[in-house]
Structures are given as structure tokens and as C-alpha cells.
Inverse folding.
């Protein structure tokens, strides 16, 4: 009887253990499915993917390229002509990696609060790169780093040469307007693999980061011809970016930040107009604010810290780690970014008593915020407590991600001829290819009429 009792006990324990293992497996499966759902429209470039060898070379080559900047002494405050024309060539087994204007982009990354170590971790993390699948007509290849912070996009030789040609003006624009809506280009490289043509590519901050709760994405050009995207069937894995006509009937509700956006759009489009550029897009994404993010009431200490951060023109440092699940990022309440002086930015609107800045320190910080007229003159704004503040604005109900991309199309002979042809074909209608002056004015008008 005792033996039978022991056998029953052992049998019962085995059943419970089996059930426990089964529950654990189900939980792990559910977690993986949940994370996979977050990769909607993005696909891992794994060993079976055609781009896998290329992305492996990119990760290795970029890691070494950034390592070179880490080991290089601090960049001088004043950049030289040699810095803008610098070209670093690094040979690897099976390919050659080249880095263009490395010292310039290093200093630019520093101005955005992006450390070289965190930049390197994003580019060369243990996670796989992600392929961005969208309804875009562009022939370029798009890759995202595994943490979704950085975008890699192939460019033509002509486009890269144009960027390097205007790079000094591009950097000067950000020095004058640190919170410009222009896409933040963090590096320019090329890779030449054995028996393949040289590929040029740029590295950019993702405008839509973090994207877990973004429910709508739009690519706006301020015109109507060919500016409608047919919605995909429910359940489609294509990450859709809609266009101008899809946006009709909607408005961007910014309240107090509207005047800042109107002014910054004017400054940025006039800059592009002076470069004789057109065909750029205003990206707009939005997500619903959590209840505790609405009607924020900022404390004095928090406002001073945010003002100091804004005046200094520094954004949240880009940090990344090797995520166990591809494409996952911290939730909004789990941010580990910290302000220069050590004050945490937790994503909540008010500082807790344990983290309040002492009054003596408040006075020291306030003294660094010089003349408020200087802030207004350069159209700087208070940065939100967020991981990608340079592209983010909060309205009463929604959080908006806004940035200007694709700034490489010059209004040359080819575009002038295209304008004449479209003028005849689409007489009386608004199409994309117009003069840079008209293009800039039209986009500013769109922002003015679609914001409240």
C-alpha cells in the first residue's frame, strides 16, 4: 500500500510538472506571437533571405567604421575642409567599406546626443536587420536595425554626391535650428562586394520610433495627382504609408505647438528651396496618448530641465541592446534615457518628490537658459520626455511623429521637362513636380490648413 501511495504521489508530481512545462511553453509561444505581431510589415533578414550576406557584411563593416571614430581623438569644435572631404577605406574579407565625411557626421551625432558606442550597438547588434516592406514605389532598398532606431537606405551615386556637396549647409542649418524637421542623416557609406557593383547608402534616424502604438502613417507632398493609396485587405502584412488624399478630413491637433510647427516647416522648406530641391515628403504618424499623458501639468523643475535640454539642442541618447526578440523596444514607461545632469526622464509628466531638483540646483540650471529671445529666434522648442524627441510632438489627444525625408531631388533639366509634360497632361491639377519655390509654398500651405 505504501509503495502504491508513493507511486501515486510520484505520478501526480510528474503530471503537475508536465502541466507546468506545458504552461511555460504556451506562455513562451504567446510571447513570441505577440512580438511577431509587432513586426507587422517588417521581416527578419535571416539566413534564408537574399539580403542576409549583404547585411552581415554591413554590420561588420559599420562596426569597424564606428570603432575607428571611437578610437579617434575628439573632433575639433570647428570642422575643416578636410573633414568634409574625408574618406575612410577599410578592407574586409570579400568586400570594401568606405565612410564619407566621418568627422562631420561624428560631430553631428554628438550634437543630437547620440554616443558613438550606442550608435555602434544599434548598427551591429546581435539581432538581425529587418527589411522594411511598404507600398512605396522607390527602387531603393530599406533596412532597419533590429531595435528599429536607425534606417539604412541605398542611394544613387548622384544623390550621395549631392548630399556631400550640400553637407556643410545641412550641418549649418541644424546648428541654427536644432529641432529642424529634416531627417537626421547620421552617416554616409558605400560597400563594394566581390563581383558586385558598389552600393551607396545613408544611415538615418527613424522618424517613426518607437512605432509599437502608431496607428497611422502618411507621406504628404501637398498635391493630389497620384496621391491616393488603396488600403490593403484586413490582415495584410504590408506596412502601409498613406498619402495626401487619404488624409483628407483629418487634422493635426497640436494646440500650443502649432505655431512652432508652422514656423519650422517654413524654415525647412525655404532651406530646401534655396538648394533647388523638390519632391521631398512630410512624414506624419500618430498614436493615441495614454490617459496619464493627456493634459500634462509640468512642474517647475521639469520645465527648467526640459528648457535647458532644448536650448542645448540635445535629444535623448540613442541606446540599444541585443534584444532577445527581434524588433522589440522598451515600452514608454521603461525608458532608461537620462538628462545630462542625471535627472531621469521616465515618460511621466511630473517629477516625483524623490527626483525633484534641489532649489539651489534649479537656480544653476536656470542660469544656463540665457535669453529667452534667443530661444524664440532660433525656433527651439521644449523637448518632450521621450526617446526620440526631435521628431515628436504631443497634442491634447494624440502623439505625432513628423519629419521631412527624401531631400535629394534637384530641379534640373530632367525635372523641368517632367514639369512641362505634367502641366499638359494634368492641366489645372496639383501634381508633384513643380518648381522648388512652388513646392515649398504648397507644403507650408498644407501644414497650415491641416493643423489646429
Amino acid at each position: 500500500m505504501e509503495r502504491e501511495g508513493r507511486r501515486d504521489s510520484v505520478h501526480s508530481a510528474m503530471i503537475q510538472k508536465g502541466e507546468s512545462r506545458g504552461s511555460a511553453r504556451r506562455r513562451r509561444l504567446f510571447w513570441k506571437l505577440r512580438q511577431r505581431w509587432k513586426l507587422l510589415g517588417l521581416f527578419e533578414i535571416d539566413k534564408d533571405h537574399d539580403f542576409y550576406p549583404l547585411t552581415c557584411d554591413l554590420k561588420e563593416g559599420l562596426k569597424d567604421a564606428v570603432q575607428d571614430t571611437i578610437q579617434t581623438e575628439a573632433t575639433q569644435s570647428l570642422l575643416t575642409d578636410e573633414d568634409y572631404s574625408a574618406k575612410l577605406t577599410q578592407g574586409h574579407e570579400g568586400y570594401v567599406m568606405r565612410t564619407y565625411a566621418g568627422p562631420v557626421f561624428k560631430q553631428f551625432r554628438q550634437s543630437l546626443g547620440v554616443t558613438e558606442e550606442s550608435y555602434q550597438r544599434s548598427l551591429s547588434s546581435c539581432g538581425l536587420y529587418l527589411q522594411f516592406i511598404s507600398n512605396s514605389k522607390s527602387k531603393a532598398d530599406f533596412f532597419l536595425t533590429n531595435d528599429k532606431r536607425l534606417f539604412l537606405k541605398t542611394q544613387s551615386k548622384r544623390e550621395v554626391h549631392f548630399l556631400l556637396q550640400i553637407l556643410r549647409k545641412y550641418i549649418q542649418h541644424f546648428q541654427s535650428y536644432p529641432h529642424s524637421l529634416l531627417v537626421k542623416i547620421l552617416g554616409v557609406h558605400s560597400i563594394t562586394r566581390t563581383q558586385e557593383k558598389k552600393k551607396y547608402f545613408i544611415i538615418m534616424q527613424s522618424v517613426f520610433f518607437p512605432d509599437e502604438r502608431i496607428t497611422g502613417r502618411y507621406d504628404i507632398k501637398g498635391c493630389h495627382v497620384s496621391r491616393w493609396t488603396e488600403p490593403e485587405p484586413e490582415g495584410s502584412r504590408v506596412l502601409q504609408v498613406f498619402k495626401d488624399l487619404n488624409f483628407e478630413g483629418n487634422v493635426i491637433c497640436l494646440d500650443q505647438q502649432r505655431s512652432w510647427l508652422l514656423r519650422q516647416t517654413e524654415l525647412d522648406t525655404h532651406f530646401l528651396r534655396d538648394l533647388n530641391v523638390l519632391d521631398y515628403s512630410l512624414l506624419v504618424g500618430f498614436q493615441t496618448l495614454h490617459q496619464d499623458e493627456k493634459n500634462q501639468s509640468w512642474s517647475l523643475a521639469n520645465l527648467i530641465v526640459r528648457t535647458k535640454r532644448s536650448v542645448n539642442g540635445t535629444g535623448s541618447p540613442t541606446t540599444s541592446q541585443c534584444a532577445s526578440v527581434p524588433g522589440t523596444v522598451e515600452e514608454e514607461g521603461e525608458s532608461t534615457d537620462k538628462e545630462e545632469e542625471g535627472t531621469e526622464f521616465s515618460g511621466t509628466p511630473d517629477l516625483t518628490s524623490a527626483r525633484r531638483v534641489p532649489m539651489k540646483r534649479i537656480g544653476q540650471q536656470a542660469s544656463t537658459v540665457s535669453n529667452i529671445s534667443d530661444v524664440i529666434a532660433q525656433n527651439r522648442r521644449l523637448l518632450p520626455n521621450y526617446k526620440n524627441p526631435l521628431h515628436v510632438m504631443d497634442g491634447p489627444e494624440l502623439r505625432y511623429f513628423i519629419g521631412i525625408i527624401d531631400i535629394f531631388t534637384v530641379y534640373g533639366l530632367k525635372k523641368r521637362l517632367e514639369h512641362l509634360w505634367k502641366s499638359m497632361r494634368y492641366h489645372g491639377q496639383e501634381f508633384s513636380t513643380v518648381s522648388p519655390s512652388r513646392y515649398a509654398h504648397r507644403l507650408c500651405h498644407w501644414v497650415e490648413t491641416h493643423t489646429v
